[in-house]
Automatic annotation (TrEMBL):
Name under which the protein is recorded: Pentraxin (PTX) domain-containing protein
Domain of life: Eukaryota
Cofactor(s) it depends on: Ca(2+)
GO molecular function: metal ion binding
Pfam families associated with the record: Pentaxin (PF00354)
Length: 636
């Protein structure tokens, strides 16, 4: 073989290990919008490259179709297949780096435990698809700016999802395999049946040899609690109609099509070449390992929560817990920094995680940590405390047997709040108490040489600190932070800790005020209150703010979008949070600054240079310890 032929063969082999990705379908992630860029590797949402008028006039195609997936769950791959969340995205969802609504708890859950057999089903109901057609042009000069990702969101499909898990627990260990075989045969024989027919057939197959429990989540709020098969089937029957009554018949965003930015420009930096040589197998391997870590951690935390341990047991369990947490941290860092682009990916990006998992075994036998944990527990048993179990049973009995009218009333209230939250109307979020599980989140941001964070709020003095706005990046989890403290009544802004005495601002007077906090890379810092500039300095941070981070309202991020603490949570009321940025300095001085100074901040009419909007933050609302109230003015 001559050198030319050899070169051709080597090039061909290289191409076979890489694939060109132009368009791909992915689940909807909060803050996705038509015409917005997307980092496929990091599942991070970027910036708008199409004008809002293009988004508003997208072509609408009516779909009106249901898709159903059923499976008996034997492995974590089965769960990912049913939920249609795979590859690097499933890793990021398990790690809590990305929120794909409704899927996280299922992806992290244990597979087939004890005498239990699980059948998982997902129903997708599609209403319409909105698409930016190829004749529409992006914003002029978009490709000369700092852009997150190599794709953009070309279409969004609306509708709803319903996920139901039926868990059959054999009454006798000896009958488990028999029940499993009957359920499997029922699934295979009923492929042409409706969802309702499948569930009925499965229940009949299990018979009286197993008890059944139901776990359920949906994009709609049901009129009934799915406490048995009859109520679950009623919910399934009503599911399409519930979607048609949501968001003027659209439902919620469930799927998006992303297209390579290289379709819009020939610039090399926007070319995405998927490295499929070793990336696919390594992601699959990483997924199995990380699932083992998460399941083991969940079981450890659950079992140790009410355990009475001796000093020797504390040492033994603590040593094992430290080991698994150290491995978890390495996996988390690897997952957060995954790169699927062959143009930029490091060939060693998986090494640290895989080496940490196989450190004392030198093989890929998955389930290692769960096996080790169960062995440690068997060798070091303890007496469980029954108080918590009894309390949980008592609460469950009360919820089931009493106050059903109250439950229905609560559902009505939640439905009303849901409509307020997503209707696009004026909404105030009230945080009456500090909670680590209540916040508003939106991921993705461009690199910024200036930021103006505006909001209207009424602050309540907390026990400790109260965090209002935080922006975390891989460079620093406090890249941009607005918060108050009780002890010294100061406010920290922009990473390098610019302090203000907020007593002089009247920030904690218990009244509604409009606020804007401005910073740019020249070192300028302005604070606006109720349309008046109350602070100005020229000695702040002078480096650009990194892009690709996560914005959170109501919490301090000790890690990107995670590690919240109750004692640092926001307490008070807030609305109209908008983040602006990347201003032309002269334009800000002559137009934006005067606009802010001449109006109450909550009625600010300026809509340009928007990085994150209040509507986007509302889509990322999480938690149960806040209320959503329709309001008409800042003082309401």
């Amino acid at each position: 073989m001559n050198l030319r032929a050899l070169g051709f063969m080597l090039a061909l082999l290289a191409l076979q290990s890489q694939s060109h990705v132009e368009s791909v379908s992915v689940p909807f992630i909060p803050s996705m919008m038509l015409g917005r860029t997307f980092d496929y590797s990091k599942s991070a949402v970027g910036v708008d490259i199409y004008d809002a008028s293009v988004r508003d006039n997208a072509v609408v195609r009516h779909v009106d179709r249901s898709d159903v997936k059923f499976k008996m769950i034997k492995s974590s791959e089965d769960v990912r297949d049913v939920l249609d969340v795979s590859g690097q995205l499933s890793l990021k969802v398990m790690a809590g780096v990305v929120d794909v609504e409704g899927r996280g708890s299922y992806l992290k859950s244990s597979i087939e435990s004890g005498n239990t057999i699980e059948v998982l089903a997902q129903i997708y109901y599609r209403t319409v698809t909105k698409t930016i057609t190829d004749d529409k042009q992006p914003i002029s000069g978009w490709d000369s700016k700092s852009i997150v990702g190599q794709h953009y969101i070309r279409s969004i499909t609306y509708g709803g999802y319903l996920i139901a898990s039926l868990k059959f627990t054999a009454k006798k260990t000896s009958t488990k395999e028999h029940i499993k075989a009957r359920l499997s045969a029922s699934l295979n024989a009923g492929v042409s049946l409706s969802v309702k027919g499948q569930f009925e057939k499965l229940t009949q197959a299990a018979g009286d040899t197993a008890s059944m429990s139901i776990y359920y989540t949906s994009s709609t709020i049901p009129d009934l609690a799915p406490i048995n098969l009859t109520t679950l089937l009623t919910i399934i029957d009503n599911f399409p109609e519930k979607i048609r009554n949501t968001n003027e018949g659209l439902g919620v965003p469930i799927k998006v099509e992303i297209r390579e930015l290289g379709y819009l420009t020939q610039k090399t930096k926007f070319k995405f070449l998927e490295n499929s040589g070793n990336v696919g197998p390594n992601i699959e391997r990483l997924g199995k390992m990380y699932h083992d870590i998460m399941v083991a951690l969940n079981e450890i935390r659950k079992k140790l929560k009410d355990a009475r341990l001796t000093d020797a047991q504390e040492t033994k369990y603590g040593k094992f817990y430290d080991k698994i947490m150290q491995t978890h941290g390495i996996f988390l860092e690897t997952i957060e920094n995954l790169d699927l682009n062959a143009n930029t990916a490091s060939p060693t990006q998986f090494d640290a995680a895989i080496n940490a998992y196989t450190e004392d075994t030198n093989h890929y036998l998955f389930g290692k940590f769960l096996r080790q944990w169960r062995r440690v527990r068997k060798e070091n048993p303890w007496d469980p405390v029954e108080i918590r179990k009894n309390n949980e049973k008592r609460v469950k009995d009360q919820q089931t047997m009493q106050n059903m009218e109250g439950v229905i009333g609560q559902l009505d209230a939640e439905t009303s709040s849901f409509k307020n939250l997503y209707s696009g109307g004026d909404v105030t979020i009230s945080f009456p108490t500090q909670s680590a599980s209540t916040y508003m989140i939106d991921r993705g941001s461009p690199e910024m040489d200036s930021i103006m964070a505006c909001f209207s709020g009424k602050l309540t003095s907390p026990r400790s600190s109260s965090h209002i706005i935080s922006y975390a990046t891989t460079a620093h989890d406090n890249s941009f932070l607005v918060y108050t403290t009780r002890s010294n009544a100061r406010l920290t802004l922009v990473d390098k800790h610019k302090y203000y005495d907020i007593n002089t601002f009247g920030m904690k007077d218990g009244k509604w005020h409009g606020w804007c906090f401005y910073w740019d890379a020249t070192g300028t810092n302005n604070v606006y209150k109720d349309g008046k500039i109350v602070y100005n300095s020229q000695n702040s941070r002078t480096e650009n703010m990194p892009g690709g981070g996560t914005w959170v309202l109501g919490q301090d991020q000790d890690g990107i979008g995670r590690n919240f603490e109750e004692g640092q949570a926001f307490i008070g009321e807030i609305r109209d949070v908008n983040i602006y940025g990347n201003f032309d300095k002269n334009y800000f001085k002559t137009v934006v600054g005067p606009a802010v100074s001449s109006s109450n901040t909550c009625n600010l009419k300026y809509k340009g240079n928007l990085i994150k909007s209040w509507d986007e933050f509302k889509l990322g609302f999480v938690g149960n310890y806040a209320t959503m109230v329709k309001s008409s003015s800042c003082s309401n």
